[in-house]
Amino acid sequence: MANVDETIYLAxxxxxxxxxxxxxxxxxxxxxxxxTLTEHVINVVRTKMREQNPNRDTTAFxxxxxxxxxxxxxxxxxxxxxxxxxxxxxxxxSLAKPFAEGLxxxxxxxxxxxxxxxxxxxxxxxxxxxxxxxxxxxxxFKQLLEKVQMLMSYTPLQDIEKVFKFYTLVALIMNPDNNLxxxxxxxxxxxxxxxxxxxxxxxPPCFSSLILKFIDSFRPTAQLVSITGRDMxxxxxxxxxxxxxLWRLHYIxxxxxxxxxxxxxxxxxxxxxxxxxxxIKQLNSRDLAFSLVxxxxxxxxxxxxxxxxxxxLLIWNILETNKIQDFEGQLHLWxxxxxxxxxxxxxxxxxxxxxxxxxxxxxxxxxGPVYGIGRDWLMWLIGQMLCHVLNKNHVKSAxxxxxxxxxxxxxxxxxxxxxxxxxYRDFQSVVSTxxxxxxxxxxxxxIPAIAATNQSTSLPQHQTPNALYLHVETLxxxxxxxxxxxxxxxxxxxxxxVGNDPKLNSPYMDTLFKVYILNxxxxxxxxxxxxxxxxxxxxxxxxxxxxxxAHVKCLVARQYYSEVISKNLFISSxxxxxxxxxxxxxxxxxxFPEVEQDRLKELLNLTETIINKNWYLGxxxxxxxxxFRVHRIPTSIxxxxxxxxxxxxxxxxHAGHPQLHCAIQNLLLNLILQFNCTDLYNQVPKLxxxxxxxxxxxxxxxxxxxxxxxxxxxxxxVTGSESMxxxxxxxxxxxxxxLTQHAWSASTLETMPTFMADWYRAHPINDVYRDIRARVDDxxxxxxxxxxxxxxxxIVKHFSQSNNTTCLCVFLKLTIEDRPLRSYINTFYExxxxxxxxxxxxxxxxxxxxxxxxxxxxxxxxQTFMQKYADAVVLMATRYNIIQLDxxxxxLFLRPLEEPKTPYVHILFYFMINSSTLSEIIxxxxxxxxxxxxxxxxxxxxxxxxHCEYHKKNNERFFMxxxxxxxxxxxxxxxxxxYYSNMCLRLLPVSYFSx
Length: 995
Prior knowledge:
Layout: H1 6-16, H2 21-30, H3 34-51, H4 58-70, H5 75-91, H6 96-104, H7 115-128, H8 134-148, H9 160-174, H10 183-193, H11 205-216, H12 219-225, H13 266-269, H14 273-280, H15 286-292, H16 304-321, H17 327-346, H18 352-364, H19 373-392, H20 399-412, H21 428-432, H22 434-453, H23 469-481, H24 490-496, H25 502-516, H26 542-547, H27 550-568, H28 580-590, H29 593-613, H30 616-628, H31 635-650, H32 658-673, H33 677-689, H34 702-718, H35 727-739, H36 746-751, H37 754-762, H38 772-784, H39 792-799, H40 807-816, H41 825-835, H42 841-857, H43 863-878, H44 885-894, H45 903-913, H46 916-931, H47 942-953, H48 967-971, H49 983-991
């Protein structure tokens, strides 16, 4: 029994659950030294481990060994236990993790342990960490890092050896060459367990170099998986909406979502307040802002990050406005900001009181009071939306919501002397009295209403600030006078204070409509007449609209829609009530987001009603509004408009009205071309799945179908998806091909995505116009040879057949060959009168194909020859009024031609716009446009100066007036009122395809 420590053996016995002195005595009698004892213990452990349940708690098994280890007081015993534990682990590796955790979790396991026990423990742990799996090592390493937290910034000299042993153990695990643990997991544990590493809270000095060097080794990886300079790549509204995941932020902290525990650059982990404010400051930023913070648009959730950003934006505006001397610059800055704030408040993602409270707290921290014009503009912005928010949010109001605004007014206006009265003939007066208006509106309208709702017996009294005393007294006098004329801006200031009372709003509304909107039968200026348009031509001035609160603007728009448009739209005799001034006023109101959101839905419903009733007047008016005056059309509504107005073109009841056809074709082109490429690429599959697009494309709309396909091709290229064909696209192409057989020129196919070009090459079509020249020559002979057809009735019948589309070609040939047209005027008039009763698309396409084949197959392409064809086409449109140039040019530009023949279309177009007639029209349009100043919103007679002036010189005809003298007088009732459109404006989207 030499060198035998009986205590060790007894501990082993207790741990193994051995009961019986015979077994102990037998082992003791056979043991000669420590090696023999260890071997015998291992044999007993092996036997017991096999006999025991595999689910036995190993923690209870190893605890006595750990206690024995920690209680060792001399080197021989420590050496014996250390060797024993290593042998046990070699026999049973699964015991390595329990032994290591038992040591590290022991209450006495700290740097105050005697050096003998500490150094032996570190030696044993270096041996144990080589056995567990990755997860086991990860748990052990986490406990080691917890021990690192125990180290102070200063290490006593006597503990340096202990720290070095501990450092060696930690470095052993962190060394990637040892393959003890995945470096990524080590990095993660360091980040979670040690929240240090910053200048104000560094790592312990002895471990700082090791940890920082290890962390820095991951910086290339962090750069690899992050977007370089993302904090400086600011997203742009309208182009970044569907790529917003690249800037995804936490909706409270406004930090980039960095799930990986990597050492990212400081800019990548800081709050991105500047980036978010940049997005918020842009118009129509709601969808992008919601997408950045990962919140659905229809979720009514308060987003404090948006409130903070808007508050910062408003404070920045206050300070910036004090630097801007130009009033127009101040107005532009605050009107844009008002639109932005109102959009967010309308969606109940923020509260006005929350913004004001944040502003109040920030301003209170300023070193001094905030003077200057900036505070007045802030009050103007709040007044714009105060009453509107009360009606829109449907949230139960509380005293605190409005006390915030009263407190803010007190903070911003600490002046001891009353502010002077402004000049009410100037718009600046609306801004100067905004604070007094808000104070008066709250104390006389809102708070009493809340008190009445809450059945409060006593109203809180709020003393008017000294600075606002004179302004408040003036407002009281304005309310007593009940203004009924628009002499100055006191009319709008007083109207803003009325609130929701219909009786109080009625006098103001009647006065405004009488001046700007309603058509007075006593006085209809003839200078305002243009294509059956009568009445006042001046819309409500923009300055007056800016002076109105958002609530008043909504009331005016609702009144105009319900009392003028809805009532008079389907009554021809009442159409004169829809004056240019009224339409322009309504269009200007639609530019404001508070009006646009509600009225767009009503206009969509109105369009559907118009289609059901086949009403030309309403369809033409709405087509002009959506084309020229409504620009912020969401993608979903844009798709609905395409669907509705395409149905009008496809309807046989509307096919024979060329003026309506041109207006709707122009609208469809603008709607399609204004699709954002990213929106188009992402939304088209959804629209196809919803079966909405199927009703957009018809057999009569070949050109519109081709324009849409070009835009889809462009979206694939712009979004970088041309190399990734998608099933929906080929299915969509097949669907369009079934509706309208079409092809593309070789040059166009080269610019398309490869899979689209290959699809078209694999699906060629037959040339249905290959004999067009022979057919035209044959019909030309029948017309000019009196023996071919017996009389005029047979000629009219022949050219009026549904399968005969050569009439326009024959007329063109007569014009080019300088044949006398006088003898054919009556015949062609009767033919075209029959043709106008149905769609003319087939005739236009036949004419386009005939022109292309004539100019491409001609041997001599002299300037005289091309000019002759160009003049003949222009005369058909401007003199004889049987075609419209925008319809013909769109077809010409989209016809498929072989590569050598493509330039001839552009050459023909060049000679057309340089012909004497068309160039004069374009020159007149250009001169009128140049005479209009850039600030058209300040003009009082824009409709007369631009629209009426143009139509006086170039009154466009649509019904063959060039054939018959005085025909315009007998057919004036067929013309639809035209408020904005003309031929030059309709040529703009068509010329896009000439490139």
